[in-house]
Amino acid sequence: MSVYKRYCVEKFDGSGKLLSMDFTYPENFNFGYDVVDATAEEEPNKRALVWCNAAGDERTFSFGEISRLSNRTANVLRSAGIGRGDYVMVALKRHYEYWIVSVALHKLGAVMIPMTHMLTAHDIEYRMSCRSISAIICTPDDDLHDRMLEAAANKAPDCRFWTVQRSVPGFRNLTEEMESAPDTFERIETLASDPMLLYFTSGTTGYPKGVIHDFTYPLAHVVAAKYWQQAEENGLHFTVAETGWAKASWGKIYGQWLVGSAVMVYDFDNFEPKQLVSVINKYGVTSFCAPATVYRYLARKGIPAMPNLKHAATAGEQLNPSISRTFTESTGLPLAEGYGQTETTILLGNFCWEEPVVGSLGKPSPIYDIEIRDADGTLTPEGEVGEIVILPKDGKRPTGLCCGYLDEETYAAAWEGGVYHTGDSALKDKDGRFFFYGRIDDIIKSGGFRIGPNEVENVLMAHPGVMECAVVGVPDPLRGQAIKAFVVPSPGYTASTVFARELREYANSRMAEYKWIRFVEFMDEIPKTISGKMRKTELRK
After folding, report:
1. What is the pLDDT of residues 255-266, one digit of tens each?
2. Which of 158, 172, 210, 510 lies most in the core, judged by the most C-beta atoms within 10 Å?
């Protein structure tokens, strides 16, 4: 029996659709002990992690190995004074040590702060200023360790420093210290309500927000892993995500291990679509999840055969319908879109009990009550755009939704009116399916009409000359706002006034007049956050 069944009570209808999932767990539930160690005790040789890198190195870890190695790591950290409630920054890219370190920190009851290696010293200082940092564990690659030391000198002078794999000045070598540490670890009592993770959002419209999740958070990922990504017992799931972002929690550890699936990790720096496909085929990946960018590059450059792959999903950014159709035509696999935030687990998805609908985010997860409301808090009529909000569950915060922000006032504001405001807009059709429109701030109001930028972007992306695009509203004396498109041309296409006119005519002939593109500007690349999301605030400026 999969471990998740001990903590999740499911109710299905006669057709196999999941109607509800309730969570029953002890007050001291801890993923490190109750999932990883429990699996290791019952099936020590069960495959947990398959890792390879761009240099051709590879390793496979069983749950027994993850349990013992995490115990060694926990012993090293505890001997250095790291314990329950301490905040520890972790920036390990896609190194396999991330999975060992994260489980160790969970066992200690420490609060892990996953971070991307791309942060500048200023970015790191900002995060350090939000909480007192007890330790940093980071990759020895690039010059990240120097940036960490620079930031800590100003903000965390008492911090302890470790790298993995090899030694660098100013850091202890965690890999070496683990070798002589005991591989047993007596359980430390933690509470399910303790903070477990602190994520920082990507900051598309302002400074990144610090998002706090407690020890119940892993359980809420079961819905995504089993019913959206369709990770299988003894299967191999591959999510393309760097460990500094919440997408890693969605697809690279919690839900997958809870449902009995191993996790595939490809450790790379430079994105090469065909190399991802070779990993899928070599290791027999059964389920795959990636942001739209990956599918877009695959579609533009040709999608090789993937005979072992059974399921494919996408989230993190809007997927253009033409890309989805191309992928399905090439592989025979429907692409299941999903939606959620750093603050949540999956909120909306094309779940396995229904055929995915191209362009739709799907329907609400059974663990959330979700509505679309207008600015005044009233329900929007069918087919009209409003904000996606989350309702309390039995008067309480639903499992999977963050238990707070570092800024308590911001968290209180997010619950204005008794519902949680996502800040994202969508509409719901007559079948109950949701269609994404963008951030509330990104909605374009032109000539009295409300236009979701993705409506226009989807049409424009169907032109073969468009590699990437972003649409915003710009001031217009007649319409209030006019629509402007920023375009990165595909290889073989050149930015020119003639090409701009061609794109306008192509898109405008396929849309209602109130959605017409008035201006086109070519760019070498669209400005993005370090997580890859478009910064439309910069474009509007």
Report:
1. 999 999 999 999
2. 210
Q: In what order do the strands lie in the sheet with 386-391?
A: 369-373, 386-391, 420-428, 434-439
> Confidence class of residue 123 from pLDDT cuts 50, 70 and 90?
confident
Domain ranges of the chain: 26-36+62-215, 447-540
Q: How far is CA 192 from CA 29, 30, 40, 165, 367, in A?
A: 5, 7, 21, 32, 18
Q: List, in sequence order, every beta strand (DSSP E) within 201-242.
A: 210-214, 236-239
CATH architecture of 447-540: 2-Layer Sandwich (3.30)
With 0-12 CB in 10 A as exposed, 13-18 as middle and 19+ as buried, what is 234? Answer: exposed
Q: In this structure, are strands 287-290 and 311-314 parallel, antiparallel, or unpaired? A: parallel
In the chain, the amino acid numbered 198 is L
Q: H/E element holding 270?
A: none
pLDDT at 474 over 80: yes
Instruction: Tell me the Cα Rg of the chain.
Output: 23
Listed in sequence order, the residues at least 6 apart from 482 whose beta carbon sits closer than 8 Å to its beta carbon are: 446, 473, 474, 475, 476, 518, 519
Is residue 60 a contact partner of residue 96, using CB atoms and an 8 Å limit?
Answer: no
- The pTM is what? 0.85
Q: Residue 134 in contact with residue 87, Cβ under 8 Å?
A: yes
The token duo for 170 is: 């100013």
What is the secondary structure of 440-507 as a DSSP string? Answer: GGG-EEETTEEE-HHHHHHHHHTSTTEEEEEEEEEEETTTEEEEEEEEEEPTT----HHHHHHHHHHH
User: What is the token pair recorded at 439?
Assistant: 């951030």
Give 421: exposed, middle or buried? Use CB within 10 Å, 0-12, 13-18, 19+: middle
What pLDDT, on a 0 to 100 scale, did the predictor assign at position 176?
A: 97
467 contacts 489 by C-beta, under 8 angstroms: yes
Amino acid, res. 262? A
**Rounded-to-integer distance, Cα 189 and Cα 184, Å:** 16
Distance CA 211, CA 403 (A): 8
- How many whole angstroms separate alpha carbon 38 and alpha carbon 7? 13
Q: From CA 80, how far away is CA 73, in angstroms rounded?
A: 11
Q: What is the fold of 26-36+62-215?
A: Rossmann fold (3.40.50)
Q: What phi and psi values does residue 381 have, to the nearest 5 degrees? A: -65, 160
Query: Mapping DSSP to helix (H, G, I), strand (E, B) and coil, where does residue 536 land?
Result: helix
Let me know how long the chain is.
Answer: 541
